[in-house]
Structures are given as C-alpha cells and as structure tokens.
Design brief:
A hairpin with an 8-residue loop joins strand 1 and strand 2. This protein has strands at about 10-15, 20-30, 35, 40-45, 55-60, 65, 70-75, 80, 85, 95, 105. It is about 0% helix and about 50% strand.
Length: about 110
C-alpha cells in the first residue's frame, strides 16, 4: 500500500515535546511506524569501550511516530493537511490534500 508520508516531504510535528517544529523526512520505517526527520530526535548514546572501539558518547537519531506528523502542503504559510488517495487518469494512485480541496501532492 502507498504511504501517506514519504521521504522528502516537509512535515510539521503536531504533538509532543517538539510540537510546532518542521523538518524534512529523511526516511520512513513503515513496519515500526516511525519517520526520521532532519534535525529532530537527536540523542546522545553512551558506549562502553571494548577491544574494537573506544568508549564515549555518540549522537544517534531517534524516529518520530507517524501519528504525530502532518504534511505541510503550503510552505509559505505553513498550512498542513491530512493525506488521502485517489486514482488518477491511467489508474495510478496519487496522494491528495484533504484540507486544500483534494489538491494533488507531488
């Protein structure tokens, strides 16, 4: 099935600690239901030293749940919309913005 949020989309976080922040989707993991967003969800992970690598801290990226995201349809105003699907001419499935009069999304 097609995904409502895909790599490259500009999204806005609608709930949680990062509410109101926007960012570009780097990748989506549909099995876990999370998306990795540029500049959001960076955490420090502490590693114990072993014979192969030195211990210390490293920065990792933590995903954001897909239910907390809304796609930004109009970048100038920052308006978001829910996403739906419809069949275009030729039978191809395309994404549409529900709050913008079923406008097709790239």
């Amino acid at each position: 099935m097609a995904s409502r949020i895909v790599k490259g989309d500009l999204v806005k976080i609608i709930t949680g600690d990062n509410k109101g922040k926007t960012g570009k989707v780097l990748r989506v993991d549909p099995a876990k239901g999370i998306a990795y967003i540029d500049g959001i969800g960076l955490r420090e992970r502490h590693y114990k030293a072993n014979q192969y690598m030195q211990g210390g801290k490293r920065e990792i990226q933590v995903g954001v749940d897909l239910s907390k995201l809304a796609v930004v349809v109009d970048e100038k105003t920052g308006k978001t919309s829910r996403i739906g699907f419809k069949r275009a001419d030729g039978g191809k499935l395309v994404r549409i913005a529900k709050q913008h009069g079923n406008k097709e999304i790239k």
